[in-house]
Specification:
The complex is a heterodimer.
Chain A: E1 14-19, H1 25-32, E2 44-45, E3 48-49, H2 53-61, E4 63-66, H3 79-84, H4 89-98, H5 114-130, E5 135-139, H6 147-158, E6 163-167, H7 171-175, E7 179-184, E8 187-190
Parallel strand pairs in A: 1-6, 1-7, 4-5, 5-6
Antiparallel strand pairs in A: 2-3, 7-8
Helix pairs in contact in A: 4-5
Chain B: H1 2-8, H2 11-37, H3 42-60, H4 64-79, H5 88-111, H6 115-123, H7 131-150, H8 152-160, H9 162-166, H10 172-194, H11 204-213, H12 217-242, H13 246-263, H14 276-280
Helix pairs in contact in B: 2-7, 2-10, 2-11, 2-12, 3-4, 3-5, 3-6, 3-10, 4-10, 7-10, 11-12, 11-13, 12-13
The chains are: A alpha/beta, B mainly alpha.
Bound molecules: adenosine-5'-triphosphate and magnesium ion.
Family (chain B): Belongs to the ABC-3 integral membrane protein family.
Subcellular location (chain B): Cell membrane; Membrane
InterPro entries (chain B): ABC_BtuC-like, ABC_TroCD
């Protein structure tokens, strides 16, 4: 599905990934986390190639991931449990307050609206970074947000002191990234 | 009433009541995990595997029921790698079930034991509870809630979404394996208590009722244990009073409770509708 991708992202760099639906952007992000087994090729993060299960666990913990499909899940999970899973519960809770979803902490995720859920995932990512994650992998992190939320989230995501790889079609986010790449039919092209 | 107290003075009755109380602490939490992992047919698989263990025990002279529990535990561990996909576990359990029963019948035939004798051990009877069963249930009553409360954050993530759990530093493979072994051993233990056909009363039914009452994993576990204690104790006393076998009475009571829980309209919390801030200052 994704092939011939040759991408080097420098530490601290902010890279936006755009491209047609189904071109493989989500697949690429998931491959970085080992959620989508790569058939060939190597993905190194921080110069480390993941081999063992422990390597993958470390890489996943070192990354803040905002999935595109924020699944309702098979089993109820409280918003606060999601925030706590970041590794820095207090930071994530503060971020949730700032994002206007602090009062929903006691609610199960399946009762949140799409935008509320996305804000909660954003707050979790803030917690992950506070807990030491050095890489933010965000998959359309502002797609469900209202206008004000899009602007806030774009500012929040791109002012973190981490390497950012963000799949997005949101102008506000794209404009705040140093590099913009376009993916077409599983291959990458640099735009700026 | 005096008749009831006479019965309660009996050793076997006391041991049975104690076993049911112990079972009510650990097994309903196992039921919650069974629902969370989406492996409701697990008891059928364990029934067949237990039979294979019993057959092996009869062949070798080792305690057949111990063999049954060990066989269930091993197969739980063997199933763990298949939990990666949602449909992996159910499919594998079906296959395991057929293989186990075929192997069991073969072993029984080789050992020259009457198959009916082996099947009999699967029926279980609460009043025939042995000390070994009580010990097993006691271990489950300590280990299951203990593990649950120590690892509830990781557990909630795993049961909600495997990938999210993996990305939160949970070692999903290892945790899944521990859960499957616990489920397998606990179901084997419960089968001894009520028999294979009635094991739901102790595990699944309290969990199903609890699922309706709570919106979080921890809440569900509390409710499930509460339902379990009520069903087991009330059901047992009722069975003694009515002079009927406890197993079916327990299942009926648990079933009625689960049904009643589903008839209660779903709880709505006020925050669900709108945020308090919006309620104060409309834009
Ligand atoms: N689990 C899956 N199994 C099989 N094919 C898949 C799976 N997930 C995605 N695909 C396929 O892989 C291709 C790339 O999908 P991907 O989700 O990476 O696209 P995308 O660029 O993120 O699209 P979008 O902009 O719609 O989010 C698509 O053709 C899709 O149908
Ligand atoms: Mg996508």
């Amino acid at each position: 599905m994704v092939h011939g991708v040759d991408l080097v992202v420098e530490p601290g760099e902010r890279v936006a990934l755009t491209g047609t639906n189904g071109s493989g952007k989500t697949t690429l992000l998931r491959a970085v986390l080992g959620l989508h087994p790569a058939r060939s090729g190597v993905i190194e993060v921080g110069g480390v190639r993941a081999g063992s299960a422990a390597d993958w666990t470390r890489r996943r913990r070192d990354a803040a991931w905002i999935p595109q499909k924020q699944a309702a899940g098979r089993f109820p999970l409280l918003a606060d449990e999601l925030l706590a899973s970041s590794g820095a519960p207090e930071h994530a809770r503060t971020a949730a307050e700032e994002l206007g979803v602090g009062h929903l902490r006691g609610q199960p995720l399946h009762t949140l609206s799409g935008g509320q859920l996305q804000r909660t995932y954003l707050a979790r990512a803030m917690g992950c970074v506070a807990a030491g994650a050095g890489l933010l992998l965000a998959d359309e992190p502002t797609a469900a947000l209202d206008f004000a939320g899009q602007a806030d989230a774009a500012r929040m995501l791109t002012s973190l002191p981490v390497t950012v790889l963000v799949v997005t079609h949101d102008r506000a986010v794209v404009n705040r990234c140093e590099r913009v790449l376009e993916m077409a039919a599983g291959a990458l092209r640099e735009i700026t | 009433m005096t008749q009831l107290f006479d019965l309660l003075a009996l050793d076997a009755v006391q041991r049975a009541a104690f076993a049911l109380l112990l079972g009510a602490i650990g097994l309903p939490i196992v039921g919650v995990v069974i629902i969370g992992l989406d492996i409701v047919p697990v008891r059928f698989a364990m029934m067949h595997i237990a039979l294979l263990g019993i057959a092996f025990g009869l062949l070798t002279g080792v305690d057949p029921l111990l063999c049954a529990v060990v066989a269930c535990g091993l197969s739980g561990a063997g199933l763990a790698p298949l939990a990666r996909s949602a449909s992996g576990l159910s499919g594998a359990m079906g296959l395991l079930m057929s293989l186990a029963i075929a192997a069991a019948l073969l072993v029984l035939s080789i050992s020259g034991v009457n198959a009916a004798g082996a099947f009999e051990l699967l029926w279980g009877s609460i009043l025939a509870t042995r000390t070994g069963d009580v010990v097993l249930l006691g271990v489950i009553a300590v280990v299951v809630p203990g593990l649950f409360f120590l690892r509830r954050g990781q557990l909630a993530l795993l049961l909600h979404d495997r990938e999210l759990a993996a990305c939160s530093g949970v070692r999903v493979e290892r945790l899944t394996m521990v859960l499957l072994v616990l489920v397998a051993v606990a179901v084997a233990g419960a089968i001894r208590l009520t028999g294979a056909l009635l094991v739901d009363a102790l595990t699944l039914l309290p969990a199903l009722a609890a699922r309706r009452m709570a919106h979080s994993l921890t809440g569900m576990a509390w409710w499930a244990v509460g339902f379990g204690v009520v069903v087991n104790l009330v059901g047992f006393v009722l069975a003694l009073l009515l002079d009927q076998p406890p197993g079916p009475v327990l299942v009926l009571l648990a079933g009625v409770l689960a049904l009643a829980a589903h008839l209660i309209p779903e709880r709505r919390t006020p925050e669900w509708q709108s945020s308090p801030r919006e309620a104060v200052s409309p834009h």
